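Structure tokens please, single chain.
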Amino acid sequence: MEKPKKLEERCVMASKVFKTLSHPLRLKILCNLFDGEKAVGELEELCQGSQSLVSQCLKRLELEGYVGARREGENVYYSITDERLVELFKSFEQVFCCIKKK
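Here you go.
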């Protein structure tokens, strides 16, 4: 059995991930990023969200270290940077069929 302190740390970390994923638009953004990098405008269209709300969600995902951004000219492209999310989304696919196969 895992020591209580170590278990507590893992539970806190997992609850932060689930709290982030609990917002439908953040989850939708990550589902769309699962198959590769996307520009902000493309995410707005795919997620049917306003520019300001998509940008807020992307900023939170970036601050929490789940996605990264790169600028190319006037466009900003986002991609998943946390490999734990990739593994988690593979499980999501099996349970909820929310993402495309990679």
